[in-house]
């Protein structure tokens, strides 16, 4: 089969999602209103609450939620076969991710830009807020600690990516200043992308690296420390100065990357060599159900998106109706990246024959980012005539920049959570932005070096929990949106059905993983897994109680009216 059929199926499906389904949800269910005063205007402070052009905000939102996950997840999950992976990416984007992201953005904007944790108190109850925020903080801790390792590994393994990755920050700072001075967006976008790709070309012939040992630490460990120092500073700067322009220019870079990859598919029309359904998996390979649905999270539906939607994006929303463009179209962009990843790791650009593909994908977890970069760079080189080395650097930089923007937003979001805890428990010191940021970074570094030793890879210790925890968070976010809709007396099935499905898969996966951790004697993961599962059950029970009370009250009011 030719990969172009996969691409056409995905494009047609996502176009339906954008032009038909998202419009229906935004207008008929969420009832987005241009006249509603968003938190960006009501609470404007020039730092976190900043009314923002919807295209720029889309760039921030898209690159913050994307990270490396829509590449890593699909590049691993294709091991079970490309058909289930493609179906989950396309259908998940249309009916799950888009509604989840847009809904979290809408609900947060309707509650003064509150995070999903704080919002859960308003919608469900006080106890829910504390429970919800445990899961949110754990997810952020995992994402920040692990993405620091991912970027550091990329810098060590791909020194060509170092210069363009840091140069992108300088480009973003300049663009931020020019946008603040009302310089037109389109020329800035074109010039910024040109400069960014020029740095990629320069980086391919100018590798940069740290000494293999410095201050008694490895180069990877030093990169992790440098990255967290940068993330701490970035999280305290006004969003217009670095976060928005950095994410925007990275979003434009991804668009160019997607055009190159998708365009190459139409030029080359490569055949698929991966199996539609892999019937030759190695012994003890986990079952596709439920593991597929937690392996591919970003690119189908992801709880982390709800944190970003309600954490930073809702505070920058200029008009409520922009939420459809930012939230749903952001999910479509990420689904497009996941789809082309599946094409890159499934076809002849990676493996000429099925036998060669099985050699590369010898077990679940093989391939991953390396397979995407190899397959994608060969695809771009064949389709557009670029040297493989430049195409490889381009994709490596894309992965690093995405991981970096997610880390930027992740530390800022962690700071928000800590400040919210300061308000809840009346700890005034934690309300201070600098103190909250230092606490957030300290937690990440403590995990990185406390659990991982001098390598700084401690985040990997609890990373196996991410899949199920992240999807449980997605289901809890959909639950909060559903309860809010029920309170507004609007149809909630469009969020409740995805919630039930995602929760079932994530909870089942969590139980399977719990058994694995217990057998291996990994008691830290056993305890954390139990905490996440228990918290999810308690939140569901709280929500069910609220729904029952609301229904009873509504029925009594109807009886009185009659």
Structural description of this entry:
- By secondary structure, the protein is an all-alpha fold.
- Helix content is 75%, strand content 1%.
- The chain has 23 helices and two strands.
- The protein has helices at 3-29, 39-42, 54-66, 69-77, 82-109, 116-123, 126-157, 162-180, 185-204, 219-236, 243-268, 288-295, 303-311, 322-346, 354-360, 368-384, 388-424, 428-431, 433-450, 459-462, 466-487, 493-520, 523-561; strands at residues 213-214, 217-218.
- A two-stranded antiparallel ribbon has the order 1-2.
- Helix 1 (3-29) packs parallel to helix 5 and helix 12 (288-295) crosses helix 22 (493-520).
- The protein is globular and about 70 Å long.
- The protein starts with a helix and ends with a helix.
Strand order of the largest sheet: 1-2
The largest β sheet comes out as: 2 strands, antiparallel
Q: Would you list the SSEs in sequence order as H and E?
A: HHHHHHHHHEEHHHHHHHHHHHHHH
Helical fraction equals: over 70%
Provide the β-strand percentage band: under 5%
Average the pLDDT over all residues and give the rounded result.
91
Radius of gyration: 23 Å
Termini gap:
63 Å
